[in-house]
Amino acid sequence: MKKFWALFFFFWPTVAIIVCAIAPSRGWWFPGAPMSRTGIQIDGLFYLILIIVTITFVGTQYVLGYALWRGATKDPREKAFFSHGSHKLEIIWTIVPSFILVFISLSQLDVLAEIRVISKFPEKSTKVAEVKARQFEWRIRYPKPGTELTTEENPGDLYFVNELHVPTGKPVIVNLRTQDVQHAFFSPQLRVKQDAVPGLVIPIWFDVLEVGTYDLVCAELCGWGHYKMKARIVAQSQSSVDKYLTQLTADQNADGTKSEAAKSGE
Amino acid sequence: MSLTPSLKLLTLAGLLSLVTAISGCTDSAFESSFVYSQGTLSLMREARDGTKENLGVKRLLDDRFGNPQHLKAWAEMPIDFGGALTTVVEIKELPRGRKVIKLTVEEGQTLPAKAANLKFVTGGFAGAGLHVEEWNSETGEATVTASESLTISASDICAVDGGTVLTAGRMLYMRHCSHCHGTSGDGNGPTARYMTPKPRDYRNGVFKFKSTNDMSKVSRNDLSRIVKYGIPGTYMPSFLLLKDEDHHAIIEYVRFLALRGEYERKLVAELSSDFSENAYKSRINASEKKEDIQKELVEFLAVDLKESAKTLGADLAEIWAAADTEEAAIVPSVARIPDTPESRRRGRELFLSKTLNCADCHGIDGAGNGPQTIAFEKNPLKADELYNEPGLHDDWDNLNQPRNLQLGMYRGGRRPIDLFSRIYGGIKGSRMPSFKTTPHEDIWHIVNYVLSIPFETDPGATGIAPSVAPESLVPPAAVTVPAAN
């Protein structure tokens, strides 16, 4: 029975090693590969931390298992040895983790700055749309084609809901705001997450690497309909986005006469 | 070993989950029912529940629409219940009690690619269903196993997978809609109490944002736009991400609820003036005899209401079906007038003019603060009584102030045609009237002006002062403030 517990504590770190080793290839950690450049960096940081905590966890568990095993196999008549602690050891296990923590916090600063600090945003990024969260949907406003997106609404702006079209392969900025309570713009595949705070216009940038449709969900419990606050991000080539916006312009200017219907039916 | 107690726990948990799984399979876990309207409940008992020989309002309604667990498809209604109505052509016997039933479908309809059951509408097997073992959608041949007592004959009518759309719609409705709009579509679900404006009560058969003429019902296309794009400025969110077939199913179910509610209202209207509890009391007070009233009611139920139950259904079917026709759609006779400063100016003139009088409600700057918003309205339901709070009310008796046009938030859509439809057809159920006699050019001028309001640097910056004297815009004189409750 004594040996059982020692083996028990050897068993779990072994499982942890196996799981950590096969998880990346099986895609257990993430909803698919990162679909933005910052996403790749974020995944890199994640794996860095994963390696550190795995080594720490496995190391401490094996030490624990070893101590138990030694106790289990000892002659029961042998007198127990009592130690009042070791200054040297305590200094080591204080300094080593603090170095690890400082290392982690320094190594992620660049990525954090790139994502969050406006002056570090890519120079050639385009403001594509304003996303206004509200209970329980995402209202999208594109600037009138050929004009700049501003905080204020302008005549000719294009409106849609729950579907954001962005071009791939270039950094884009989305102005995030909320009409009511706090929400969070979260696209799992793009690894983008940002809270929307009442009264603030928060720019977020990302570059989508591949054409496709990605989820946009709310990640801040915002009310009873939080679970249904879901939209999609449609990433496509710039020409497809332009085409989409042209179509949206036509739809939004529809005046219901036959000629118009024929035009938009093309 | 030490694992035994935890194993017991595991088994217990396993059993429990099994039990819940089994009970979850039956419909009883989701038991729900349609409620009857206040109008129905205010009728005399015999009118509500019927007598031995005659059906009352409740039964008339339940026979035609069923309840959420057992929905009924009243084939006359212009609702896509799902599946196809077919006629039996011939029956071929196969060994071991199996039969091949050949079916034809009415022209214009098509047989579904897959089929799971047949439900008989007429014939000796009416009301019963059969499981389809094999299905050939091209020849319309269904292979079934049936006992000797099966009395199907040629020219029996049966539905192939009947009601699939409606039941799918009900499941989606219960998941996405009912917590606001209520199981019966009465706009009184559990979350409704936290909302202003209130969720729509479908039972009037009235929908606000539609692209059909003022006297027409809402079209499927209009409902589809509402479901897909939501209503900004209200709690109605967008359900864009649902599949097209889900949109379709939800809309058919909403139409089903609306038709049920409207049918109930019409039946009640037949009875309420003479046979409501209140009418009964006042008739007794007018020294009519109890027996006479009851005799009259029985006669009314047996003859008049029986007849009305048919004609009212036919009338409803006709007007709802008409909403989806081309004749019902609002089509401007001229294309939109180009959005120029002149056009906007003309629009503002019309907006302020005495004939159209938009400013009376929407305010001279379109801020939704016209004099009517602070006047006390007469309550149309209670003679000679005013509402307790100032402002305009809708048909559902809720305060419903005119839109603030400066916000640039358009509940019924922001396309020029949407605004044109709001003006031309009015907004049903609200105090926004129809301006269908106004020339279409003028409506376009107003649309151009209204769309420019959110971007005006100063209110009325199109450069003209109100053309009406300010006095005409003060609240109506006969306003008395009722005592607070």
Question: Can you describe this structure?
Answer:
The complex is a heterodimer of chains A (266) and B (485). Helices cover 42% and strands 23% of the residues of chain A. With 266 residues, chain A is an alpha+beta fold. Chain A has 2 domains: 2-73 and 87-115, no CATH class; 123-264, Immunoglobulin-like. In chain A, helix 1 packs antiparallel against helix 2. In chain A, 23% of the residues are buried. Chain B has 14 helices and 9 strands. Chain B is globular, with a radius of gyration of 28 Å. Chain B has 3 domains: 84-162, Elongation Factor Tu (Ef-tu), domain 3 (Beta Barrel), CATH 2.40.30; 179-327, no CATH class; 341-473, Cytochrome c-like domain (Cytochrome Bc1 Complex, Chain D, domain 2, Orthogonal Bundle), CATH 1.10.760. In chain B, strand 1 (66-67) and strand 2 (70-71) form a beta hairpin. In chain B, the strands form 2 sheets. Chain B has a 7-stranded antiparallel beta sheet with strand order 6-5-9-3-4-8-7, with no helix packed on it. In chain B, strands 1-2 form a two-stranded antiparallel ribbon. Classes of the chains: A alpha+beta (266), B alpha+beta (485). The A-B interface holds A 135-137, 139, 153-155, 159, 161-163, 224-225, 228-232, 251-260 and B 176, 179, 191, 211, 229-230, 232, 235, 237-238, 240-241, 330-332, 334-336, 408, 414-417, 420-421, 444, 451-452, 454-455.
